[in-house]
Structure formats: structure tokens, C-alpha cells
Amino acid sequence: MAPDTTSIAGYTIFREGDYDSASAASLIPRGVPHPLDQLSIVEIPAAAKLIREYASPKVLKFNCITLREPRKAEYAAFRNGQAPRPDRRAFAIIIVQGSGQVAEVVANLTKSKVEEWKEVQDVAPTLTLEDLDVIERIARTDPRVIKACEGIGITDMSKVFFDGWAIGVDERWGFERRLQQGLAYYRNSEFDNQYAHPLDFTVVADTEREEILSVDVKYVNGERTAAPLTEHNFLPEFIGDHYKNDRLKPIDITQPQGVSFQVRGNELSWAGYKMHIGFNYREGIVISDVRMHDPYEDRDRTLFNRISVVEMVVPYGNPDPPHHRKHAFDVGEYGTGYMTNSLKLGCDCKGAIHYMDGVMSTGAGEAAVIKNAICIHEEDNGLLYKHTDFRDGTVVSARDRKLIISQIITAANYEYGFYHTFTLDGTYKLEMKLTGMLNTYCMHPSEQAAPYGTEVAPRINAHNHQHLFSLRVDPEIDGVNNSVLQSDALSSDYAVGSPENYYGNGFYCKKTPLRTSLEAATNYCHETNRSWDIINPNKINEISKKPVTYKIINNACPPLLAKPGSVVWKRAAFARNALWVVPYKDYEIFPAGDYVCQSTGEENHPHNKTIVDWANRNESIENTDIVCYMQFGLTHFPRTEDFPIMPAEPVSIMMRASNFFRKNPALWVPPSALCVDTMSRNAFPSACCAEKDSSRL
Amino acid sequence: MAPDTTSIAGYTIFREGDYDSASAASLIPRGVPHPLDQLSIVEIPAAAKLIREYASPKVLKFNCITLREPRKAEYAAFRNGQAPRPDRRAFAIIIVQGSGQVAEVVANLTKSKVEEWKEVQDVAPTLTLEDLDVIERIARTDPRVIKACEGIGITDMSKVFFDGWAIGVDERWGFERRLQQGLAYYRNSEFDNQYAHPLDFTVVADTEREEILSVDVKYVNGERTAAPLTEHNFLPEFIGDHYKNDRLKPIDITQPQGVSFQVRGNELSWAGYKMHIGFNYREGIVISDVRMHDPYEDRDRTLFNRISVVEMVVPYGNPDPPHHRKHAFDVGEYGTGYMTNSLKLGCDCKGAIHYMDGVMSTGAGEAAVIKNAICIHEEDNGLLYKHTDFRDGTVVSARDRKLIISQIITAANYEYGFYHTFTLDGTYKLEMKLTGMLNTYCMHPSEQAAPYGTEVAPRINAHNHQHLFSLRVDPEIDGVNNSVLQSDALSSDYAVGSPENYYGNGFYCKKTPLRTSLEAATNYCHETNRSWDIINPNKINEISKKPVTYKIINNACPPLLAKPGSVVWKRAAFARNALWVVPYKDYEIFPAGDYVCQSTGEENHPHNKTIVDWANRNESIENTDIVCYMQFGLTHFPRTEDFPIMPAEPVSIMMRASNFFRKNPALWVPPSALCVDTMSRNAFPSACCAEKDSSRL
């Protein structure tokens, strides 16, 4: 490899000549790709070549090359055997060298031609890992940066590091600049934890021109803030002496007969579920065509057409500049796929694991593989059901399982784990786990951390923030045409002592149809235990007489604390509500816009529509093909326990079957135990499972 | 065993002569009991003997014989080496045969004498399994019951079953009767699911006199409702043909080097935690003296003095009599300990399990063992922490563990699993799992289930209900004297565009001290993400300058839907709030009163004080020994998937360290993986863990 060739940590980049290797051969998919399969290591450079030739003599940088999913109608027709296989297409965002012109390109790989080329204005595309690499490289040699470091006694620039972030908002420049900011840190040694040494200045750069635009020192009472120098480490080379190696005995999780799931290409089946697993630079994992076998109707019933995390925002709550610029949109500004970790067995995933690789693109249009990007495994999930007849001890119980499709991303300091989970009772849950490093800033001796942060180590301030995720679900509840009802638990309308409610205990569930997209922009209500029903009004459960339903259970959806009219409130408008519902339209996916970097949240941007624009069309969402955006997350007031590295904190959202199946859909699961314990014996007869206490104490 | 001797399913009763057996020998604890250990199979009959002799010639029935925990000051002095070991004492509630007089008795087992005998009036004690056995036995032969059955064509009384319930409320009788009600069901055969055949009448009985007081037929439009006869079964003998035995491959969970916890008597230590595990007839599991080793201060720091579930209520939402009577207080009216299942390996608990037995008492004052009442085991808990340096892929991650102390109870139709969980980051969580059978009732052809229920099978109505649990925590956050603050997330007080909040992103946490017990009777607020901080105001985290804290995270606390002034609102007053805090007083434990059966919720009952009475004293709860009652649960609108047996539904509450430790308390956990992945190698060097994909597809 040539010394100046780009490397990206965690990526295996394929260049010309690499394709003859054995490892490449094992990575080239066999057979015809499923229409939703991510682009392969062959298709990406093929697309790049087509696009380069089309654009010639313009020199292009590829911001992304990703699958152009077929239009829903075309794909559905193919699946139903009514139409031929859709062509394979790539979607690319390119940036023209020199002019910085951004264009959206669609290349047809089946027909080897560019089909669409659309130039877009007043947008800033996703900052890739290569883009974010710029600031550290150019800042270290910039005289203004060097001077800023000297001002606090730092002269060895090899010890100064910059985490590249999207700019958030900075009124000094517009779209004529492709901006990023660098948060500055110091390290005493190569692996020293830099978040223990945050510096008191930030840097703004133009990514394309590789220019430092500004070095902004934050003076406090006219003074500089010295870098906190005490180390706070967590890597073994620093704290290995403190490990208690004998305290935890190993737990082995094995599946000696293999796993219960099958994977054919990227199609996964497990315990009656079937689905397709996709992956792309922006959403990471995409789960499509989820259906479940109904044991009573003996047919596969559709549940969800498509599930993915389409945006997230981490707004910080310190109003003092430049901290107001910290509100990272990790999906839209950086790309969840791009930031995905390569997972390792035993460390990230335990048990019998199946991995899938992620295939990304580089700025040069090369394919880059993230080995083991996606982990697929099943886990025991405790009790599925149990009942004992108290009279004689007759008992039956069965155990539940969960199937987990997961990825972990690193967004500079933070780690996020995404755990898409299915259980045997038909429930889907997305669990997020938050870990990694708090964002930190240095404190001047005259300052205190409160009220906008916590001093998590001497003179190190971790600012308050929120983590708000947007889960996009295109439901297909037993068919394409669905509706949404809001479901509120209410006390009886009648007074205590009235004939209708004499003892005062009456309560019921009020269902409010959400008929248009504006009506559906709703929030959680604790007092009524609000949930939302995604129904198929054309399919009535013949037993309960209610429409077949999947219920959205989402009570972990904190209100957006940035005030109405604030920058965050505008840019992260999706986070104003726990739910949005709009009619399905091809390629309307990203609720904060296709181009989140430097966005203002303005309504009706010609190239950057958001969920607000779609909802404002105020179309009917009744008995039609709809899409739901569900927001959830948490508010984080840092604590000392989060430093120097955060214990993983979980937060989740669920969708559960509700009158979808005519009875418990998991009665096919053989029980773990059946014991008939008759009173006359007053002891436990031979159980169907061995009774042994295998602990050694 | 004599043929007419009481048997109770799941109990191994010890009678005279049984104590010479080998199994008895293995059950008699060795050594001196810990002062909080449950009474042994020797102590219970010893207490019964003392009390019988004291009361002679009165003939007694023992409603309970349980440990009389030592007064807190006495126990603390003993633990600190300042006082001798407290005497072993038994607390018993007795019912005098004939008069029905109830008395509370304290017997000193160390000194072999009765120390206290207090008669109590206008109370009805817990209904034991023996008590609840009465109604089925006497109803089957009662002429009015037989007639009621004939009216719907049922003549074989051996096929009619009655689940005994507390009465809830019935104005026809007062405390002169010790009431229970029987909900009637039919079975086609011995193991047929009776909840598929609910009958349209209920029975009220006097438990002591074993008399049927009333048979109440619920006419609909003047007609009887025929019993639904279609079977809806879930036992293998009925549905075994439908099991898919090959669909799920086994998952083996083993600990070849043994478990990480040690149990000495009933004292448990694990991963730096230490605690005592108790058990009694009413609360089930009691966890005492929880402390955790602080690796930085190198000392054991106290967390919680005592944790247990002290009440729960399941109020049904159908206002039509007799359904208003359904609001079971499973702790207070029946006793969680009494209803505890005997657990079996592989079925209820998986992995390397340590079991503890529960020791109950019978009406005759005998000891009865519930084998394997409590399950103790550890589980992998996924990621503890992870961080990757995006520059070069340097990564470290460690895995979390959870310790689970659990029991499962059967409350007639319902099953409840109680999972007390500790994790390595210092978090305590109580997770409840709800499974078993919905309560069902029959529907007349002219009726519909809505709005107060769901038709879960043809003509079978499952009524709306709530499950509300009360977790009592006596905190000892690094010391005895604690306070509580209410914690609300608020947007900045300043407007967008103001100097203090120019960009409008500011937000902070408002802490409101709760100074008295009335101030502390609070509820959840979703809009402010409310949580509560239990603090030690005398111990300030030297780094964050905040008092050491354990934070109550409880957003699963539905409001009580029974209206103010209703029977449920009065009797289950504890459920009106998500939190109550009162000063500690010995033996003030049960928030719905010591005597819940037939209670009215009246304030200031001489023998039956409730949390409302304690809170109304409006004492200071600042910087003193306090007790917290935390209510959580869920509102259940039944769905067809819950029938004929419910997939387990979880609901939980947590307490997390917050500025309690000076940094992440789990850095002693050796990492699962450390990889230095330098860019120059662009591949993954030898990892410290084997990379293998062990799935077979």
C-alpha cells in the first residue's frame, strides 16, 4: 500500500489489485443479490467508475455510494411474482473538487449507466470519517492553533488532539463553506485519556479547502484556563494493576446443536419470523420485510416493511458559546454505518454468533469492509409463561428467547449500541445502550459546573445533554394499509356513587383516531399511560372484534428541553414529538433532512425537506400506506460514576402485538417443565428436567 | 400421615415424628442464626407451643408465625459490637376458635416465653392457603350453589371449582364475619383450563365458621348466562401435538469454575456487594444490610438497610357488581411468601443456581418448607463499557454481570415473578414479570366486552385492570441519616435570545428538597423527566460537590385509575402516589395496613395504620432515618394474545448510584477485549479473545 493512501481505522479498503486476494473472494457475494442487499465490494467501485466517467472532466469526491432501494411498488410487484427483478442501482452524493458543488447521482448497475444527476444547493453533506480526519491534521500545524496552545503552556503539538464534529450552527459562514469544528484535547502519552485534558479553545475549519477558518479561545474573566493535567485512565496499561481477576467466574454460553436461526444471504429466519437485514452508511442496520408465521392461520403475516434508526440528536444544555454548537446528529451528520465498530466475539457479543460485514465506500469511490459490523445471535429471555394450579401444584412453564441484531458505533467520544430485538410473543424492541466517554470541558478556577453540568473530575465539566433517537417504522400490519389510533387510559366518565360507577372503580381505554399527519404529531401523556395502536382497519380480530394491531409502547421519550425558537428546536424538529405519522413516499426517510450538517431547520428547503414539511402537507393517514417516526431517549445529567468511562445505560422502545393473533402466538414452544404434583404425595415426583444445584460455593 | 391431615400443594409440612428424618436434618440450620434469618423448622413449632400453652385453654389457629425482626437500634448495636446478640423472637397472629378473636403475639424463643399478647378489633387477617381452601370445599355441597349450577345445566359438582379471593368490599357484613369470596369456574376434565369456563355467580363465605353466606347470581336482562364450554387449553396433554420441538436449539449456560457469589447461611456476597437474604410469609424475599465495597475508598459503604415488596393491588376496572369486588392485594390479603412457588432448575431458572428454601407456618403451628423458594444466580448482562479511539481502532470493552435473587408466586390465576437485580455499576433494579392466567368472566349473548374488558375468546371477557406494586426501601446511603430531593429537568429560565440563553439550548436540573412526609407524597412528571434523589447530606462527593446519592428512576408508575372517593382509592391509598417518604419507625412496614382484608381505608384505625396515617403525622424527613415507598406497575387492557396463558410481561423500577462513587465503580472488571488496531496494519492483530463464529447455519 502506498504510504499516502487513505486508511480508516476499522475498515478494510479494497483497491485495484486487492480483488484477486483470497479475502476479497470470500467477501464477494455469490449468486444474485436480494434487491435490498447492501452494495457489494464489486458494485461500489463499479458505481464510482460509472459516475466518474459521466462527470468527467470534473473530479469528484464520493460522500457516499450506497444502495438505491427500489421503489416500493416495483419491489412489491417483484416479490409477488408480477414483475421482473428490479435493476441494481447505486445512489451517490458527490462533491465536485474545486467548486464544491454537491450532486445526487443515481447509477444503474444492471444497465451500466447514470440515470439521474441532480445538483443541490445550500446543503452540506454528511461528514465522513475521512472528512473528520482533516481538522486534527491541519490544526496541529496552524499558527493560530499553535499560539493558542502556547498560551496555556503547551508546545508539543503531537500531544494535541482534535475530535472533529459537525459545526452545529455558526453564523459567521454559510454554505459557501463546508464546515466542521474541532474540540481540542491534550494527551500526556499515546494512549492517555484525552477527555481528562480538554482545552479551552475550539477550531473551525473548511473541510473541502482544508483551511482553518477560526480559532476561538474561550476566555473566562479575561483569563485562559489551564489544561487539567491529572490523568484519568481506563485502559489496562494504566489501571491493569487494579483488576480483580478472580472476582467473576466465567459464564459460558453455548449452543452445542447450533443456533435456531438460519441466514441465507442476508435473509434471516428464526422461530417463525422472517426478515431481511440490510446495512448502509447512514442508517446502519436496516430490517426489512418482517413477517411472522401465524400458527393458527398457518400463514406468514406481514408486520413491518422497514425498520431503522433514521436520526438522533444529542443536544447539550450549556448555553454559553461555543457550547451551544454541541448538538450532534449522529445519523445525519456523520452516518451510523460509517461509524460502526468491527465486533469481536466474547467482548461485544457472547454465545453462538453470526456476523455480517458492512460494506462502505471511501471518498475515492473504493469499497471498504467493516468486518463483523452486525452481530446476530439469540439469547435465553427468561420465563415465557408459567402457571401453577394452587390446588395440587400442577405446573407448566416455558422459556422465552430473544433474537438480537445489533451494531455498536463510535461517535468520537460516545459509543452507542443498537440492539434490535424480537421475542417469541411477537414483540419487537429497540434497545439502545450508551457508553464510552462523556463530552468534557475544562473549568476555570472561578467557575462552577452547576447548573449546566457536573464536575466529574477536578476541573472537568461534563455538560448536561439529551440523547434523542428517531426510529422509523414503515408498518405493514397484516397488509399495507394501516391507520394509527392514540390510546389513553381514562377513569370512567361517571362519578363515584352514580349508577354507572357506583364503587368508582371503572376505567377504560379511549381510542382516538389520528386522521391526518398534523393530528398524529403527538406526545406521551403519563397520566393516561398513552400508547399508540398501529392498526389494519381491514382486518378485524374475529374474537375480540378489534382491528389487528401493533401497539407502540414508548414512555422513554423526554421532551426536547431546548426551547421553542431555539437553534436545536428548529434543526431537531423531529424531536419535538414522540410520534409523527405520514403517508409513505419513496425516498422520504430522514426526518431532519437529507442534509443535516449546517441545516437551519427552515421549512420547505428545496433540497432538504424534513418531517415538518411532510407533516405540514397534512395528508390523510387513514387506511393507507403510512410511516411512523417514534422518538425516544433520555436526559443525561452526568454523574461522577460516568467518568472516566460510562457504565452502559440502556433505553428502549417497543412494539407489541395487540389482538393481532387470536391467542398467545407462542404456544408452540415446548415447555421446560411440566410437573404434576399431587397433594397425596407431598413431594416432587420425577420432574421432566433434572433438579440439581450446580453452584459450587 | 393421617388421611385427614392438611396438605398444602408445594409445602413439605413437618409434623411430630418428621423431625427424625434425614430430610428434616438437612433443613435444620446449623450454628447460630443470623438475627434476620427466617424462623427455622424447629423454631416455628417451638413458638406455636409457647403460644398455645400461654393461651390455654383457648384453642388457637395460627394465621402466621414469623420472625419478629429485632428493633433497628438493638440490631445495629449488635452489628457494631456494642451489644449482645438480640434474642430470637417470633411474631404470630392468632385467631381464637369460637370467638374469632384476633391477637398479635410476640414469643421470645431464646427465653422461652410469651412477651406480648395484644388483642385487636375490627380487623381481618391474611387469608392463608388453608383458609382459601375452605370455599371450594363447602361451596360444592351447598344447596344454593348446587341450585345455581343447575340453573345453567351443571349437575356434576365435581367439575365446579372455586378460586378463593379476599372479599374486596361487601357492605352486607362487617368484621363479625371473616369473609372470602369464591369465583366460580367449570372444568370438563381434571386438567381442563377452568378460566375458559367462568360461571355467572359468585359465592361469599365465612372462613372461620365455614358457612356459605350468599350465592350471588348475576342476571343479565333477567337471564342466566350459559357457561362457555369450548376448551382453551395450554397443558401438553391438550396441545402437545402442536409443539414445534425442533424450532429452538438448546442454549446451555454453565459456569465451569463455579459461581462468583458466596453464600454463608443467608448472607450473600458478590462482586463487592454484601447482603442478607430473608424471607417471610407476607413479603416473600427481604434483602437487608446491602452494602458495596468502594474500590477507591477501600471500605464497605452501606446502601440499603432493607428492601422488600410490601404491598400490591390489582384493581379491576369493570364497575358492575360484583366485579367491583375484584381488587386483590396479593401481599397483604394473601401473603407473597405463602404463595411462593417451589422452583425447578432449567424451567424457572437457568444456569448455575443456588436455591434457598422458604419456611412457612401452618394453621396448626407446624413448620412447612417450600423447597427452592428463592433462586439466586448471576447472568451475563451485556456490555459494561466500551470505547474505541476512532483514529486507530484502539478499543477496550468489559462485560457486565447481574446478580438476581428471585421468587415466583401464584395468586390463583396470576403468576408474578419478582427479580431483585444488582449490576456491577452499583444499580439495583426490581423487575416484576406478570404471567399466568387472566381473570375471566362469562358474557351473555346480549353483552359486549367493551369498554371495560376485552373478549379474549368467544363469550369470555377479561376485564381491564392495573397491577400496582409498592417497593419499600429503607435507604442507608453511606449512613443512616438521609434526605430526599425531587429532581426535575427544566429548560433554562431565560428566553431564547437573552444573554443567558441566546441560542435557547440551556437546561438544568432543579432539585427540590422534600422536607416533610406530606411534601414527599409525590408523583411522576413526564414533562420534567422526574426522578428522586435519596441523599446523604452529611457526605459530599468531593469531586462533584454534590451529596452522595442514590437516584430513584421510576417512570412506570401509572396513576390509580379508580376515582378519588372510590373504594379502591381508599383501601389502596398507597397507590395514589409514586413515592411516599416517612421517618423510620420499627414495625411500620405495610402501607395498606397490617390487616388488609376487609379494610375500609379509614384513617387512624387503632390497629390498622396505613401510609396515609404515617404521612399525615407530617414529620420531618430531612437528614434522618427515612423509609421510601415506591409505587410502580402497569395498566393492563387485555388482548387476545394474553389468552389462554399470558406471555410474561416485565415492568421495573431502579435505583442508581449518582455521585455516590468518585468514579465508575466497576473499573476493577477485567476487560473482555483490548485490541490495538493500528492503521498501518489495516487488519486485526491477535486479539486477546478468540475470534470464531461458532454458529452452525
Would you kindly provide a written description of the structure presented here, covering whatever features stand out?
The structure is a homodimer of 697-residue chains. With 697 residues, the first copy, chain A, is mainly beta. The radius of gyration of chain A is 27 Å and the shape is globular. At the A-B interface, strand 10, strand 18, strand 19, strand 21 and strand 23 of A face helix 4, strand 10, strand 18, strand 19 and strand 21 of B.
Any descriptors?
Nuclear Transport Factor 2, Chain: A, globular, 12-stranded antiparallel sheet, disordered C terminus, 697 residues, 3 domains, mainly beta, 9-stranded antiparallel sheet, homodimer, 9 helices, 33 strands, Beta-galactosidase, Chain A, domain 5
